[in-house]
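Dear Dr. L.,

I hope this message finds you well. Following up on our conversation about the binding site, I have prepared a predicted three-dimensional model of the protein together with 3-hydroxy-3-methylglutaryl-coenzyme A. For your records, I am including the exact sequence and ligand specification that went into the calculation, followed by the structure tokens. Please feel free to forward this to your student if that is useful.
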Amino acid sequence: MAFPTKVKIVEVGPRDGLQNEKETISAEVKIELVDRLTDAGFINIEAASFVSPKWVPQMATSTEVMAGITRKAGVIYSALTPNMKGFEGALAAKADEVVIFGAASEAFSQKNINCSIAESIERFRDVAQAAKQHNIRLRGSISCSFGCPYQGEVSPESVADVVRRLKDLGCDEIDIADTIGVGTPRHVQKVMERAAKEFPLAQLSGHFHDTYGQALANIYAAMEVGVSTFHSSVAGLGGCPYAKGATGNVSTEDVLYMMNGLGVETGIDLDKVVDAGQFISKHLGRKAVSRAGNAIAAKRAG
Ligand SMILES: CC(C)(COP(=O)([O-])OP(=O)([O-])OC[C@H]1O[C@@H](n2cnc3c(N)ncnc32)[C@H](O)[C@@H]1OP(=O)([O-])[O-])[C@@H](O)C(=O)NCCC(=O)NCCSC(=O)C[C@@](C)(O)CC(=O)[O-]
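The resulting structure of the complex is given below.
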């Protein structure tokens, strides 16, 4: 498989990045963040999550955020929808894509969405049908594809099994997620190649957290086997509420810096992403978790 010359970067900072923040972030700040990211050129931004506010309080403003953002034609604004209640919220908020999120680990499925993998697929079936009826794009996400904080090892076969089930539900894209950032490059290639036997490689994406500092290497390794869609988070925001110790997604600024150096097209303006990263980091009162973002900001400051 040829090394991609062009990649799609899905910006997940406004959802995955912010969902774990303890202090409530106002809808206005989230809206400004999404608008800055739209202006930077992303064609897919994960902006909201229609989950129980008791489970993830930070996402309770999702309706306001979706209503307040300035949408650009052609940009897909995605929202997480674990069940029909979530789907109804996303539909009312005019999400362009809904995300059903399961896991390759039974233990994580229980902790994250309070049901087994098989039960989750049944819940997702209704969401998938509704999404198709309303012509809304459907994405599936598979947590713990490289390891689980509760059960440890996760086999490529377990990932492939969930990929097959999500494919049967009609997903347009499927994310292979390293929730706790334990994957390493050869492992990533093995899992991606196995997943690609079940679902077209062009519609698979890599969602890497950088907990063990492997995310950029893992992205490069996934590109070597032909994966061309990746998730990242501005300023390296994030951490999963149900994966203790998990740090943020790989930082978007770092990914873009690497892609620019490789001459791989992204369509995204790195300088504007650095600005967005500095904006949200300032708001959160801490430094961005992005080597490239902080280096560029420091260079600009002289
Ligand atoms: C899935 C549920 C809802 C099941 O939770 P449950 O308790 O089993 O659900 P339930 O159907 O029994 O409902 C219980 C209560 O929740 C309400 N409820 C039920 N559904 C909704 C909804 N959609 N929106 C708002 N409220 C909802 C429902 O109305 C009821 O309210 P009550 O009567 O007690 O007042 C719950 O477990 C949940 O919300 N979990 C959140 C999980 C989550 O958001 N995790 C983080 C995102 S996943 C992630 O970050 C990983 C990813 C995608 O990034 C990839 C990776 O890196 O791994």
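In brief: DSSP finds twelve helices and eight strands in the chain.

With kind regards,
A. P.
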